[in-house]
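Lab meeting, item 3. Inverse folding demo.
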């Protein structure tokens, strides 16, 4: 399934990682007093089973899922045409039932009934049905038809995404080491892109070089297209275009690459393209972004609250606050993960509190661009919260 696995990890390490992940899920299920969780999110499926199958396509087509029990038992419900992909990683593979309209058209209600019956049958098979015949099952996300039919048949679904996010947030030592190796493939691709990039190329040429380098080193796919140049670096979040990069332009990008074994290679860099020296404005913007990154990295500590961290994080100049990044920091593993630390200015949109825990990996996000300014600088690095303090992984 994952030919790139062998280049960064051996089979024994992979097996240890999967055992740890199932233990993490089991502990969270027990804490929630729940026997099992059904996973539709392909990233959660990968975390629990180590399997992948058309990851981007299955994010918007509901056609495969897995049920994980608190005792570690796992049943993978896979597309019939591609079940062979998972045989090396899962011992119990069964045909999946889809309610997606694209797949089953007007038969959605029928398939929802059959799906619910199959879940109740599985819970009975494993001995997890109450005497009154009612069942409880955590779920990370679901189609509306599934939810309605489950309610009708007495299958109680409880929110399960929080179970998975909290499980994924705490990494094992092996996971952190493999994430570090995955990040190295990303760094090599960045170095290669920088060496090949010249004025006169398009932004899309630069992005193509970055993605190609990642895939050649065992990576899989990009989650975003956040690479821009010159005036398109301010404000941030302008997707890659066919703009021609001029000599002396600032290039800024966020890799957002899914690397070997599905790890999220999330780093951001900015530099001047060509042979011109950076302007005083470019130097000033970069110095501010670098100072922000250093301050927020050193501030991280186990036991600190998310809101306290936001309060104590680097204070941007007033003219840069309107163009601030979307968050101060976020968890990192197989994607952007819990926690997400908001700027206090944005707390009405969902800011929450919690504690940084040992063996979380957190990406420090930094962007500096003045309101109405010509360019902006994006920097980001993943940081491991170790027992002795923060450790930069990139």
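The presenter then showed the designed sequence:
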């Amino acid at each position: 399934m994952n030919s790139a696995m062998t280049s960064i990890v051996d089979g024994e390490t992979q097996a240890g990682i999967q055992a740890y992940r199932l233990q993490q899920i089991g502990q969270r299920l027990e804490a929630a007093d729940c026997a099992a969780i059904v996973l539709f999110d392909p990233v959660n499926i990968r975390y629990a089973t180590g399997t992948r199958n058309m990851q981007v396509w299955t994010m918007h087509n509901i056609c495969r899922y897995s049920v994980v029990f608190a005792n570690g038992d796992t049943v993978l419900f896979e597309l019939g045409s591609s079940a062979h992909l998972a045989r090396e990683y899962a011992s119990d593979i069964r045909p999946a039932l889809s309610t997606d309209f694209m797949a089953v058209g007007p038969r959605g209600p029928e398939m929802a009934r059959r799906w619910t019956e199959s879940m109740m049958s599985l819970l009975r098979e494993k001995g997890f049905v109450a005497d009154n015949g009612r069942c409880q099952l955590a779920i990370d996300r679901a189609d509306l038809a599934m939810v309605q039919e489950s309610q009708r048949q007495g299958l109680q679904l409880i929110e399960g995404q929080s179970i998975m996010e909290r499980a994924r947030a705490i990494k094992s030592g092996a996971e952190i080491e493999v994430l570090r190796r995955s990040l190295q493939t990303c760094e090599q691709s960045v170095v290669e892109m920088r060496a090949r990039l010249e004025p006169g190329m398009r932004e899309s040429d630069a992005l193509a070089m970055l993605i190609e380098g990642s895939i050649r080193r065992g990576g899989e796919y990009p989650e975003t297209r956040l690479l821009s140049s010159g005036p398109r670096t301010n404000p941030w979040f302008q997707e890659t275009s066919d703009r021609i990069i001029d000599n002396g332009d600032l290039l800024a990008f966020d890799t957002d690459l899914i690397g070997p074994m599905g790890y999220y290679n999330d780093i951001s860099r900015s530099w001047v393209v060509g042979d011109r020296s950076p302007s005083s404005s470019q130097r000033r913007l970069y110095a501010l972004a670098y100072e922000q990154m250093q301050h927020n990295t050193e501030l991280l500590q186990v036991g600190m609250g998310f809101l306290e961290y936001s309060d104590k994080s680097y204070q941007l100049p007033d003219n840069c606050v309107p163009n601030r990044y979307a968050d101060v920091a976020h968890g990192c593993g197989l994607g952007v993960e819990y926690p997400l630390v908001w700027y206090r200015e944005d707390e009405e949109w969902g800011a929450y509190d919690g504690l940084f825990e040992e063996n979380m990996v957190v990406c420090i996000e930094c962007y500096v661009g003045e309101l109405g300014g010509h360019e902006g600088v994006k920097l980001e690095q993943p940081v491991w919260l170790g027992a002795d303090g923060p450790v930069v992984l990139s």
